[in-house]
Amino acid sequence: RSRSRSPTTNRGSRRSRSPRKRDERDYGKSSRKRSRSDSRERRENEKQESRKKWQKEKLTEVELYQIYQGTVQTITDFGCFVSLEGFRGKKEGLVHIRHLPSETKIAHPRDVVKKHQKVWVKVLASSGSKVSLSMKEVNQQTGEDLYPRTASSTDSYSHSDFANPSAPCIK
Known about the structure:
Layout: H1 36-57, E1 67-76, E2 79-84, E3 92-96, E4 118-127, E5 130-134, H2 151-155
Parallel strand pairs: 3-5
Antiparallel strand pairs: 1-2, 1-4, 2-3, 4-5
């Protein structure tokens, strides 16, 4: 099937064209030809830089009474475990059945949440690797805190706030 072609039919082919002279406008100040591997390397470097920046922005510890978005990982008889997003490593906490959003008594947490469901949670307590979360205190559509409080407001109690008023005074 090889056909001989006349020079006029070869106009569209790359081989028949004379190489165009490159000038500085083509590739910036460099006159060397850029290869695919150069652009691959450049893209890889950009990806690595964005990964580093993203990892620096990731959180390491949860803050008390802050709201985070998470995903339901496991549903148990006593609540559900939620994996928090935006943390370095795996950060997971428990939403007890009493802290699930419902106006009535819940028979089982699977009646309220589904596995892999995106939810908003508020950190109630943190002890070592254990994190206690609440969905009831957060509006699930907007992520707004329904009962705002700060860590400093609960730490500012004095000893007299917890004293029994009917107990005898010891000096």
